[in-house]
Every structure is written in structure tokens, then in C-alpha cells.
Design goal:
Rossmann fold, seven-stranded mixed sheet, 22% strand, globular
Length: 257
């Protein structure tokens, strides 16, 4: 777990939303949340963002600049939205790997990709903190709306950098901190009142969507995450705020030879 390096005794607990839970329990609790919402995950994304999540993902796809023949890893790829688009870009000479720690989400992603005619892609159940891939094996790594659920974000960033080829890039798409105080207030009202209600009536799981709202507030802000990426060894890190900072895309490169 990430901790203040000046503190000689790192905490044995971490946050699960606003709760403090044992570090060993967080992964299991997050798994329960996503197993519960997997079947209605895409529907809820459309409702929660009024469809804007598709524009956020399009921005990531364009910023990634994936070319024919490249290898791409989509970490916490869930239902495969990014994977599907990258597969079109790399073509038959390239490869895209869909990975997720959650078997239910991974199964939903595989099913959706097959339904959309995307077949033959490797699908790997993997923990972002310890990716089971060779060093320097991918041109691009993405993680969309997954980093905030990782217990040890520093370890995940190091792991994703490790599997990048020299010159490769990591893109992190994640909810972040609104840049305007007025927007922040409105966003809080929406997140803590409307979002759990949508969870109750659409996904039949109010608690999971309350956790998702809380997990967003506990995620590092734009500059903190940029610093974490730099500490993990990524260079030329940039932040792109979308929708007033409600969402941010961070991009960094592995530049060592």
C-alpha cells in the first residue's frame, strides 16, 4: 500500500470508499462490487455519464496514437470498449490483450467482443499490481476507470511501466477532481444522491454505486497522480482534463533505452 515515506510504520489498512478496511480485504471487496454490477455495467455507464463516457474513451484512443502492428495491453479493460477500438487500429499484424482482475467483468468483455465480431484476442485475468507479462513487451498500455480500485496504485504504475517497450506510453483514464468549486458542488449532489438511486433501480445494487462515488473522492487528484507516475519512472507525463476535471487522462512514456 502507498504510504508517506517519512512514516516508518505503513498502515495495515486502506480505504474502500470511505471505510478503512484491512489491506488484504480490499481486493475481495472490490471484486464483489464488480461481480455484482458486471451485467449492467455498460448500461449504467451510459446513464451515469449521459453517454459522455464514450467521448472520454474516444479521447484516449486518439491520444494513444496506436498504429498498425503494435502490441497494446488494456488493463482493467472490463467490457472491452478500448480493446475493441485498439484491435481495429493494430490490424492483423498487431495484438491487443484484454486483462482484468475480475472474472465476471472479463467474461462480459469477452462476450461483448465476440458479439461485435472481435475474435481471437488474448483475454487474461490479471492483477494490475503484478502483471503476468514480459518486460518491455507492449507499445501502449491503457487503464480506463480501473486505477482507483487498485489497492497499491504505486505498484500498479510500476508494473505497467515495466511491461512497456522503450518509447512506449501509458494512458490512465480516471475520474478526478473538478477544477471549479461550483461544478464540484453539483457533482457531489449528483454522486451521492442520484447515483445510488440509479444503482438501486437499474443495477439493483445501491451499495456498489455508493462505493463507486466514494472511491472517486478517495482517488488522487490530477497533480498527485502525475507525481506518482513520475515516481514510477514514467517521463514526459501530461494531464488532460475533460468535462471540467470530472475526468482526467494522464499520459506518460517509458523513455529509457
Amino acid at each position: 500500500m502507498s504510504h508517506d515515506p517519512s512514516d516508518p510504520k505503513p498502515s495495515s489498512t486502506t480505504h474502500f470508499g470511505y471505510q478503512q478496511v484491512p489491506v488484504a480485504d480490499k481486493q475481495k471487496r472490490v471484486a464483489e462490487v464488480f461481480s455484482s454490477v458486471a451485467r449492467r455495467y455498460d448500461l449504467m455507464n451510459d446513464l451515469m455519464s449521459m453517454g459522455v463516457h464514450r467521448l472520454w474513451k474516444r479521447f484516449v484512443i486518439d491520444l494513444a496514437g496506436v498504429r498498425a502492428g503494435e502490441r497494446v495491453l488494456d488493463v482493467a479493460g472490463g467490457t472491452g470498449d478500448l480493446t475493441r477500438e485498439f484491435a481495429k487500429q493494430v490490424g492483423p499484424r498487431g495484438q491487443v490483450v484484454l486483462s482484468d482482475i475480475n472474472a465476471a467483468m472479463l467474461g462480459e468483455g469477452r462476450r461483448r467482443l465476440i458479439d461485435q465480431g472481435v475474435v481471437g484476442l488474448p483475454v487474461v485475468q490479471a492483477n494490475a499490481e503484478m502483471l503476468p507479462f514480459a518486460d518491455r513487451s507492449f507499445d501502449c498500455v491503457t487503464i480506463g476507470f480501473g486505477l482507483r480500485n487498485v489497492t497499491d496504485k504505486d505498484a500498479a504504475l510500476r508494473s505497467m511501466r515495466r511491461v512497456l517497450k522503450p518509447g512506449g506510453r501509458l494512458l490512465v483514464l480516471e475520474f478526478s477532481k473538478p477544477l471549479n468549486a461550483g461544478l464540484s458542488k453539483l457533482y457531489d449532489q449528483y454522486s451521492f444522491k442520484l447515483l445510488p438511486l440509479m444503482g438501486r433501480f437499474v443495477a439493483r445494487d445501491e451499495a456498489s454505486y455508493r462505493y463507486l462515488a466514494e472511491s472517486i473522492r478517495m482517488h488522487p487528484d490530477q497533480q498527485t497522480l502525475k507525481g506518482m507516475m513520475e515516481n514510477a519512472g514514467l517521463e514526459r507525463c501530461q494531464v488532460y482534463n475533460l468535462t471540467g476535471g470530472i475526468v482526467a487522462v494522464h499520459r506518460g512514456f517509458r523513455l529509457d533505452a
